[in-house]
Specification:
It is built from 18 helices and 22 strands. The chain is an alpha/beta fold. The strands form four sheets. Strands 13, 14, 15, 16, 17, 18, 19, 20, 21 and 22 form a ten-stranded mixed β-sheet that branches. A five-stranded mixed β-sheet has the order 9-10-8-11-12, with helices on both faces. A four-stranded antiparallel β-sheet has the order 2-1-7-6, with helices on one face. The radius of gyration is 54 Å and the shape is rod-shaped. It binds ligand C2E and magnesium ion (MG) (2 copies).
Amino acid sequence: MNKNKSQKKYRKIRKTYLWLTVIEFILFAVCMTVLLVYAARNIGLYIVDSKMAAEYERIRYMGRLYDESLKNKESNGYSLLEEEGLDYLIVGSDGRILKTHGKNTCSDEEGIVTLPGYDEEITIYKDSERGYIYPGRNKKLSLNILEFREWLIDEGFEDDEIGLADQVVKTTGSIELPIWISTAVDNGKEQLICKAVFRASDNDVDMFAGIVIATIVLAGIILIVMLVTAIRNIIRQRRMLKLFFTDVTTENHNYTWLLVKGEKMLRRKAGKKNRFAVVNLKFVNYNTFCVCHSAAEGEEILCRIDRMLNSRLCRNEMCAHLGSANFGLILKYTDEEELRKRLESIIRDLEATDTNHKLYFRAGVSLTDKATDDAGNPVNPRSIDFNTEFNHAAMARTSMGAGDDSKIAFFDDRLIEEQKWLDKVQEKQQAALDNEEFVVYYQPKYDPRTDKLRGAEALVRWISPEMGFVSPGKFIPIFENNGFITEIDHYMIRHVAADQKRWLDEGRTCVPVSVNVSRAHFIESDLAEQIRDMVDEAGTPHEYIEIELTESAFFDDKEALLSTINRLKSYGFAVSMDDFGSGYSSLNSLKDMPLDVLKLDAEFFRGEARDNRAEIVVSEAIRLGKSLNMRIVAEGIEQKEQVDFLADQGCDMIQGYYYAKPMPGNEYEQRLQ
Ligand code: C2E
Ligand code: MG
Ligand code: MG
């Protein structure tokens, strides 16, 4: 599992909802505020507008009445105005105040101004109480009102000293504001100017209060909506995180959880006081269990394992199911032995969870306080990488071979070296084959009685320009695992056949050379034909090639093996059993397979002194082979006494350092007469 991706996704889930909530909140709040302010402003303006319009209309109406009364000379126009209770002043055509009424507070000081860009002169008056300047001519004013204001400001008047007539004034409205209104009334001689007062009534105050309350209520609703949204989003985020961290099988924690939370915990808590181990625990025979029972039963077992593991955890310890039959654990420990015992006890309990079936478990352990970086320096607990630790634990687990009895393995830096080697070999194998870096070495086999050369075994060597001389023990097991061994075996048969042909053509006395054929090859049903064709290609007579099968090859499909052996023999190849005695079913194989040669494993001849029991076993094995009409070859013979003993027992050939080590072809050919 990719840690960076998991952590990125985790942060994304957290961030998405956080930002979504914030953006949602800001957008909603901005929209609602704009809407509320706009509505409040319009309502406010509407009130002011309607109040002012009414007042203005009243004055205009009075102005008209006044005009009419003057024209008709019916009565004194002033009395009409006074009945209405209006403050007013009458201005003569020269701008002088002819009459004032009420608290007009207006002096007759007037000035005549000409606005820039206009020819017409405007008479202005001054309110002595409030210090306002107001214009006298409404008609012109409505065109130049803004310029007039600017002009006044330029002239040194303060902004609040300027009172303007007509609607423009409305925008400066407050609860009670006197406004001088210059009516359009002008009978040629006089002009009527009235003072109106803008008053907000209780109703207006109520309406304003209503607007304020409505705004507060709306703001409250917005807040509640936002709160609900935020809570909903947090719940949603929690749910998503839960899904993100939940294993579908066990419905408990998954690997991502361990990766994200486990690493965080390790970095926070790990130290000298708290030592942690990362464990990879596997239910080894899970697949077999599922095949023999059912996938559903398999999953049920996994749930039980998960529950059981979780019940064994202490504070700051974690466990998760990783998929398939793998579990990951973070455990605290004080010393390795104690941890091993604890894991053994856990495995014992796990294996006992189902008494009806045999369950096998294995655990790989990586101790985080022993972690080192690439340069071999200890890793700071604050930068522990969980993935690396887990991979190490998994590597330790897989380092236990199939036939290995152990159940717990601790990670060791050597495992990394092995892994690196494995990678290197696999990366280079094909190029090495193409470049003929694999070289055939020959180890002669001698007749112990006559000391004459009777045969040889072809053994592969890898002479790499980069890695130097690589012994087969270091690469054959890898090739056997990855299947590349079949390529090597083909390569060897071709080269040996070609060498034999060349030596025969040169007139040398050739002896049969045995070639190892790996068990991996035996899945191919036409193996005998493949070998025949390769040898025929070189034009080598078949009696000069012998095929060695290791004992492990005999575990496979017996029918197929028997058929291949029979066909090889029918084509004239001798077939030998390599390493006889190193496995367990040798005798069985001898019983079933019509082999030509028996190669006694070198292990028979290991050990310091001559061992009586070993000698008995060897002599009996030779006898057994002989009675089955087989030739006997003893491998790994290094001492003269061994040669003498084997000669006495009737062993046909000896292959060992006593006579010769494996050697390159040009050296070997010297031994051919
Ligand atoms: P093997 O087929 O049993 O080969 C005999 C091994 O014993 C060889 O090791 C040989 O060098 C070694 N040996 C022979 N005499 C003595 C002795 O007196 N003392 C000691 N200590 N060792 C002796 P080698 O060459 O390292 O090969 C190891 C194994 O690798 C072989 O065991 C064989 O299983 C495999 N192998 C080698 N070449 C090939 C090949 O071309 N194809 C396949 N499939 N396997 C090969
Ligand atoms: Mg061999
Ligand atoms: Mg052998």
